[in-house]
Amino acid sequence: MKILKWLDEEIIKEYKAGNKIRRVFLQTIKAALLNRAKEVGGEISDEDEIRVLKSELKQRQEALEQYKAGNRQDLVDSIQKEINILKELLPAEMSEAEIEKIVREKIKTLEDKSFGSVMKTVMAELRERADGKTVAQIVKKIVG
Q: For 80-91, how does the pLDDT look when each residue is reduced to its tens digit (9 = 90+)?
C-alpha cells in the first residue's frame, strides 16, 4: 500500500504543477492497483503492488518494441516516458553479477541441477528483485 499512498500525493502534486500527461499516467497506474485490490477483495500487499507495476512495465516494453518496428517515433517517445515513470516506482533490480552469485550459491545446494529446477529455486528467491529473462540467461549460461 506504500505505492498507492505515494501515488495519491504525487497525483495531487502533478495536478497543481499542471503536468497533465504525468498525472493522467499516474492515475492509470493507480487504477490498475485498485483493480487488483478489488480482485483480491481488499488491500493488496507490497509484493502484489510490485507485481502489478511489473506487469504494466512489461506491457509497455512490448508496445515499445512494436512502435519501434512500426517507425512510430511519437509513440516511442510517449511510451518511453511511461516506462521511465514505472521504473521510478519499482525497486531497483539486481545486477547480473549479483544474480549470478545467487544462482551459483543455489546450484551448490541442489541435487537436481537441471535448468528447470535451478530456475524454480532461484526465482522463488528473486521474484521481485530480478527480471525472469535475465535470470534465465544466467542460469542457461551456468547450467548449460
A: 999 999 988 888
